[in-house]
Design goal:
Length: 343
């Protein structure tokens, strides 16, 4: 038979092929669209077509291919739209809907987000950094060189086979990361998880969270820091909240202080959390030690700054009356579900 007649015949076959269900659609696919289809066979015959008609032949075969593909996609879409309704025969559309299980935010996230919002209002930008740190950014740059006794305060986990890679012991490592890559003014907060080699108990854990703050510019002073922290305490713990700064020691700040907020001892939980003093220790802070600025390539004759590190767990425990820190890391849904009304 003439090849051109054969093309016409196949086109007729395509048009007449009755697709009624998925089985016949599959038969159609195998015959006209699949990898070994009839149209391909006929295309292979092009070598037997006289040169003058090769172009015409090619166009007709392509049209044939197009017709087959078009019919296949049309029926395929149709089949997808067709749903077997028999299995829904017993469905009662008037029945009340089942419970919608909503997740809830973790109390740590709730408190952390609140802190971020408070500082964002006065221009602090969020910086996030790695949890696996190196010795330099976590300790040395922060003025805690090897053999410095202050390293004892923060024993950590080292990565296997390494004496330099460790899990960061504080978010202060973000300070050195940011200061080495950015020029002042720097005004950041860095929320995140930190690790220490601590015995796990109701009060302490080997993982916890901090929000670090750092402000570096020309002429930043201690009064700026105190005012910022007072603003924070009042936004976080209530309008009339009182704070006190106690002298302290951190290798990376000079002078250094710890900030307490006044909770009183009226309730049993406040008395417990403040160990009977009424004061809750909330954060460590101070003026960034000039050595830290120099270590990170910032001229300490030109710039000054303050920094602070807030512990999150203690605030979360105070706010939600949580008596055991371990509850925050066990991910027991019966515990977590209780926070579903909070955002
Ligand atoms: N990194 C300290 C800690 O984990 C907390 C801290 C104290 C951070 C003073 C600071 C600071 O930025 O200025 O105990």
């Amino acid at each position: 038979m003439d090849l051109f007649d054969r093309i016409k015949e196949i086109l007729k076959e395509i048009n007449d092929f009755e697709v009624v269900d998925s089985t016949s659609l599959e038969q159609f696919r195998i015959k006209f669209v699949g990898s070994k289809n009839t149209i391909k066979d006929i295309f292979g015959e092009i070598k037997n077509v006289e040169n003058a008609r090769k172009k015409e032949f090619g166009q007709e075969v392509n049209a044939l291919k197009g017709a087959a593909e078009e019919k296949f996609s049309k029926y395929q879409a149709k089949m997808e739209d067709q749903v077997d309704t028999s299995k829904y025969a017993d469905l009662d559309l008037t029945a009340p809907a089942g419970d919608l299980q909503l997740g809830s935010r973790h109390p740590i996230s709730i408190v952390m987000n609140r802190m971020i919002d408070i500082f964002a209002k006065i221009g602090f930008v969020v910086e996030e950094e790695r949890e696996i740190e190196d010795d330099w950014h976590n300790f040395t740059a922060m003025n805690t060189p090897e053999d410095h006794p202050a390293r004892d305060m923060q024993d950590t986990f080292y990565l296997q086979n390494s004496t330099v890679d460790l899990l960061r012991t504080h978010t202060s490592s973000v300070q050195s990361r940011v200061m080495t890559k950015t020029k002042p003014p720097i005004k950041i907060i860095a929320p995140g998880r930190v690790y220490r080699n601590e015995t796990i108990s109701a009060r302490s854990h080997c993982q916890f969270h901090q929000v670090e703050g750092l402000y570096i510019d020309k002429k930043v002073n201690f009064a700026d820091m105190k005012q910022t922290l007072l603003y924070f305490a009042r936004e976080m713990y209530g309008v009339g909240t009182e704070i006190r700064l106690r002298p302290s020691y951190f290798p990376f700040t000079e002078p250094s202080a710890e900030m307490d907020v006044w909770l009183g001892t009226d309730t049993e939980s406040n008395a417990r959390l403040t160990k009977g003093t009424g004061w809750l220790e909330v954060l460590g802070c101070g003026m960034v030690d000039p050595k830290v600025l120099d270590n990170c390539g910032i001229d300490s004759n030109e710039y000054t700054g303050y920094a602070f590190g807030i512990g999150i767990e203690r605030s979360a425990m105070q706010m939600y009356n949580i008596t055991d820190i371990r509850l925050l890391f066990e991910n027991d849904v019966r515990f977590l579900r209780q926070f579903s009304s909070l955002i």
